[in-house]
Write a structure and sequence with these properties.
Elements lengths: L2 H24 L7 H5 L5 E9 L8 E12 L4 E10 L2 E12 L4 E8 L4 E9 L2 E10 L2 E13 L2 E9 L5 E11 L2
Antiparallel strand pairs: 1-2, 1-10, 2-3, 3-4, 4-5, 5-6, 6-7, 7-8, 8-9, 9-10
């Protein structure tokens, strides 16, 4: 290969490398959207208490919990670890909340010490988060709805409901949460 061809190949290679580098610099890393940032409300330490039922027609019993939420994956997902004292005994869980810009829905996955995995999708309207999912309770699959209404920057109320055969909703859990100091 002649010196002129080698020089031309070297110049083209350098030009391609510099061009690819400049294109890569223009495509910056994605950053969390305002929707992602809204999940920051749940970051930090929280305590909650309320009443829950083991079935829609069961008697309510008290529960309490503590949880800690922190950002993972560069602010795209919020991971929350929960320790709950319930009528069924202690239950620990890990929850991951995210936002899917493709369909405009928040995502919610929880894994608990009962061996359950639940998935839900949600929307935020005003100060109310509404999550919907299919849920299995006592072997029966039903629709579930979980709502969180922010009351102050450091407190919210929540309610979990399941669809009834007649078309209504039965409350199976409700309570209030406060940011731990």
């Amino acid at each position: 290969m002649s010196a002129a061809i080698k020089f031309t190949v070297a110049v083209v290679a350098v030009f391609l490398f510099v061009s690819l580098y400049l294109v890569a610099q223009e495509q910056s890393m994605p950053t969390p959207s305002p929707q992602h940032q809204r999940m920051s409300y749940f970051a930090g330490n929280w305590t909650a208490e309320g009443m829950m039922k083991l079935s829609p027609k069961g008697n309510p019993a008290p529960f309490s919990l503590t949880e800690t939420g922190e950002w993972v994956s560069n602010g795209f997902f919020l991971e929350t670890r929960t320790s709950m004292k319930s009528p069924m005994g202690p239950i620990n869980s890990v929850r991951v909340m995210g936002y899917n810009p493709e369909n405009g829905l928040y995502t919610y996955n929880v894994y608990n010490s009962l061996g359950e995995h639940q998935m839900a999708t949600g929307k935020l309207q005003g100060n109310t988060w509404t999550w919907t999912s299919e849920q299995k309770m006592n072997g029966v699959v039903s629709q579930a709805r979980y709502t969180i209404t922010t009351v102050t920057p450091d407190s919210y109320i929540f309610k979990q409901e399941v669809a009834t055969p007649g078309g209504g909703w039965a409350t199976v859990m409700e309570g209030k949460a406060s940011r731990a100091q």
